[in-house]
């Protein structure tokens, strides 16, 4: 049987279509259900994780017209923003681009990702402009003051990622771990949401291509095409959407061993047009290979594992304060990449589950395992020896991916998102 997008949209309009999230579909498959093209019309896939190729495009009001000729340097909460290409001569405004990986000039753990979240939470942002005559103009802006604000992703939602471990004793600073990665073979970090990730479910990109509508951080956006560093084997996407329509829950900063990074969340609808598309949608974590590489040399493979480590893993830690020794500093609070841990007035640790990313690094650093989370172990052969390593850091958040895929499903059903 084959269907067209128009056929499916008509079923949606009449309320007869079956829409499932990728997680719901995978659960049916794992339960042994025989799913056919007649049984499902749209599957919504999602991913959430560190996406370094994230840029913020803004048109900033700075001062009254005529107050400066043109901007030479711009800083937002200390984060460098690049003015141009339009000079906006004597208009008192400036066009800027902010990279999600840019760090504040006074705090390497604050960067573009944290700035984006602060904007979306309607916080006032300190703006410093240095013009071409070296005059300094200082002001504050709120997202409501900014007439144009978009996120442009140059490479997002990779189909294939790489997992990393450190085979030697010397710790390695890296963006792929919250702090320098210890060794030998006692830590492992990985990215990717496995069998619910959009490109894993449409590897031939029959649906996911230029012009496809998506959700980027909760806002309806468009795929502009494949992104930088994209290849047939390791594709990724270039996406644009309006910042003001985004939900701060789905985007923010993520601290790493090399300073602040940025995370985003993407959901893509896949209309089930024929058996080929459905067969691709039936992929499971255990069948998705994941290269495990040497963190000392990112392109030096050690082994190949798979995404089955997501199966039956916990999405969030549980905090057991009965084991807490009230250490100063509190290591989960110090190392949490999204600042979700805080010490309460009585010295016990508190976790903001809305901010939590589920990376699991809190358990890795806490000597008492006050936060505890099952991240699963990975087994592989190297140099004739079997290694068993517990995952120490996840740089993708499957729970957020499921949440944004569920949001997309609901918007498709209620008609606010059309195919």
Distance between the termini: 20 Å
Structural class: alpha+beta
Mean pLDDT: 96
Shape: globular
Largest sheet: 14 strands, mixed
How much is the radius of gyration in Å? 23 Å
- Taking pLDDT < 50 over at least 5 consecutive residues as the criterion, the unreliable ranges are none
Strand-residue fraction? 25-35%
Percent in helix = 10-25%
Helical element count? 8
- Count the E strands: 25
Please, what is the oligomeric state? single chain
Question: What is the topological layout?
Answer:
Elements: H1 5-14, E1 19-21, H2 22-30, E2 42-50, E3 53-61, E4 71-76, E5 79-83, E6 93-99, H3 112-120, E7 125-131, E8 136-141, E9 148-156, E10 162-165, E11 188-190, H4 198-201, E12 213-216, E13 219-226, E14 237-242, E15 252-256, E16 259-271, H5 275-281, E17 289-294, E18 297-306, E19 318-319, H6 331-335, E20 341-343, E21 349-351, H7 361-365, E22 371-372, E23 377-382, E24 385-390, E25 393-394, H8 398-414
Parallel strand pairs: 1-2, 10-17, 11-25
Antiparallel strand pairs: 2-16, 3-6, 3-9, 4-5, 4-7, 5-6, 7-8, 9-14, 10-11, 12-13, 12-16, 13-14, 15-16, 17-18, 19-22, 20-21, 23-24
């Amino acid at each position: 049987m084959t269907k067209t997008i128009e056929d499916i949209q008509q079923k949606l309009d009449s309320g007869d279509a079956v829409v499932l999230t990728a997680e719901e579909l995978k659960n049916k498959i794992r339960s042994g259900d025989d799913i056919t093209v007649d049984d499902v019309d749209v599957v919504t896939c999602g991913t959430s994780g560190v996406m370094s190729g994230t840029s913020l495009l803004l048109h900033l009001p700075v001062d009254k017209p005529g107050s400066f000729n043109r901007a030479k340097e711009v800083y937002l909460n200390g984060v460098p923003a690049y003015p141009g290409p339009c000079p906006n001569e004597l208009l008192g405004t400036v066009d800027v681009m902010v990279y999600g990986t840019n760090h504040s000039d006074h705090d390497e753990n604050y960067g573009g990702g944290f700035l984006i979240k602060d904007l979306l939470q309607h916080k006032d942002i300190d703006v410093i402009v240095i013009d071409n005559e070296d005059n300094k103009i200082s002001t504050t802006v709120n997202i409501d003051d900014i007439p144009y604000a978009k996120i442009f992703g140059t490479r997002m939602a990779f189909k294939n990622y790489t997992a990393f471990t450190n085979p030697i004793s010397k710790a390695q600073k890296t963006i792929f771990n919250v702090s320098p990665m210890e060794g030998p073979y006692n830590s492992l970090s990985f990215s990717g949401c496995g069998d619910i990730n959009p490109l894993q479910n449409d590897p031939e990109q029959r649906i996911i291509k230029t012009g496809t509508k998506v959700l980027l951080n909760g806002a309806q956006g468009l795929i502009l095409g494949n992104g930088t560093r994209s290849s047939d084997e390791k594709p990724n996407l270039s996406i644009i959407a309006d910042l003001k329509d985004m939900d701060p829950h789905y985007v923010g900063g993520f601290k790493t061993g090399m300073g602040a990074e940025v995370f985003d969340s993407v959901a893509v609808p896949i209309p089930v047009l024929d058996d080929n598309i459905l067969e691709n949608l039936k992929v499971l974590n255990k069948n998705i290979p994941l290269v495990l590489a040497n963190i000392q040399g990112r392109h030096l493979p050690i082994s190949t594992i798979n995404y089955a480590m997501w199966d039956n893993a916990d999405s969030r830690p549980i905090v057991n304060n009965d084991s807490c020794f009230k250490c100063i500093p509190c290591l989960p609070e110090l190392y949490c990449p999204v600042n979700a841990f805080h010490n309460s007035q009585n010295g016990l640790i508190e976790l903001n589950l809305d901010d939590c990313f589920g990376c699991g690094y809190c358990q890795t650093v806490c000597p008492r395992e006050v936060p505890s989370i099952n991240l699963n172990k990975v087994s592989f052969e190297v140099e004739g020896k079997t290694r068993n390593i517990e995952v120490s850091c996840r740089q993708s958040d499957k729970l957020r991916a499921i949440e944004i895929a569920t949001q997309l499903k609901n918007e498709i059903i209620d008609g606010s998102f059309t195919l």
